[in-house]
Amino acid sequence: MYLKFTIDGPLEDLVRSVWPDATESELIHDYENEYEWVWLKLPAQGIRLNISREHEWGDDATETVFPIYVSEFEKGLTKQINAIARQIASVHRCPVEVHEALHNVEESDGTPIRVIE
């Protein structure tokens, strides 16, 4: 399962606003030419998340706001997906889609199984 939501702003800042107590060792931000991501460890919940999105940095950047995807790095997200979606929706005041399959960048997201607002 994975979550999808769209909001503007620096990815690391967006993640820190939802999980402000994450330490430097629990939250690692990185990027490459097309994607940026945050590896987030949530020890209290016993899960690690991959939070990622495309980006358009550089001289030819547009003002496109790309969706942010939250997926599990290790098993455990499925049991807590609704709570995490509610937490994101509450902090950012945006709808969060819950999708059943694994996120695949090569395929369309399809219809979410539910939307948390």
Provide tags for this entry.
alpha+beta; globular; seven-stranded antiparallel sheet; 117 residues; 7 strands; 21% helix; 2 helices; 32% strand
Q: In what order do the strands lie side by side in the largest sheet? A: 2-3-4-5-1-6-7
How many individual β-strands? 7
Q: How helix-rich are the residues, as a percent range?
A: 10-25%
- Radius of gyration (CA) equals 14 Å
Explain this structure.
The chain is an alpha+beta fold and 117 residues long. Helices cover 21% and strands 32% of the residues. It is built from two helices and seven strands; from the N terminus they run E-H-E-E-E-E-H-E-E. It has a seven-stranded antiparallel sheet with strand order 2-3-4-5-1-6-7, covered by helices on one side. A hairpin with a 4-residue loop joins strand 3 (35-42) and strand 4. The protein is globular.
Layout of SSEs?
Layout (H helix, E strand, L loop, with lengths): L1 E4 L5 H8 L8 E5 L3 E8 L4 E8 L13 E5 L4 H16 L3 E4 L14 E3 L1
Antiparallel strand pairs: 1-5, 1-6, 2-3, 3-4, 4-5, 6-7
